[in-house]
């Protein structure tokens, strides 16, 4: 019975993964993206009475020779036992080497299940982003799923994005993110990350770690090197994030 139950869990997870990938790949042939797909792979967990500061850094070298840079600074606060709100300030360096304030963002993450309550842990995520210079808006809704297999974890993110505004045509896009992680040590956990979106597919190695202090205080870090695989030219991205929770 134990073996059958675990086999069914694996089958359900694989089915979910296949459905997400097919949806993202199908939609990726329809419309070109306005931005990069690579970003944080979200875990579906929220801690009660949690506060956090976060910094994200993404550097991308495209096949056209551009070196694009995006940085995000955020403050987050849990407003209920299972709901977290985060407020972001986003800056970009474009292909002309100009770095400027790009956008503001509000994000809400709602943990739907207790860890280990069901065959996988679930959450939903919503974001509203406002461009700084133009009257452009972006609304994102997504599903976050994580399942543990022994010392490994599979994390899936699926997002639907709606854009509109002053310099944007009304557009609906999808994004898919995956992280398969080996929980070797709390401070060092190697992983593989996959990103699929509008006109982009990428994969690469990643590492993350957690250093715990007293109480709820802990420091998390992530580092990933993602290579675009849907085009013949060079397309490399370096992703780094550090987060202090208290």
Describe the 3D structure.
It is built from one helix and twelve strands; from the N terminus they run H-E-E-E-E-E-E-E-E-E-E-E-E. It is globular and about 45 Å long. By secondary structure, the protein is mostly beta strands. Strands 1-2-3-4-5-6-7-8-9-10-11-12 form a twelve-stranded antiparallel barrel. Helix content is 11%, strand content 58%. It has a single domain, classed as monomeric porin ompg (Porin). The longest helix has 27 residues, at 2-28.
Secondary-structure map:
Blueprint: H1 2-28, E1 51-61, E2 67-80, E3 83-93, E4 99-111, E5 121-131, E6 136-149, E7 152-165, E8 171-182, E9 189-197, E10 200-212, E11 218-228, E12 236-245
At a glance:
With 246 residues, this protein is mostly beta strands. The chain has one domain (2-245): monomeric porin ompg (Porin, Beta Barrel), CATH 2.40.160. It has 1 helix and 12 strands, in the order αββββββββββββ.
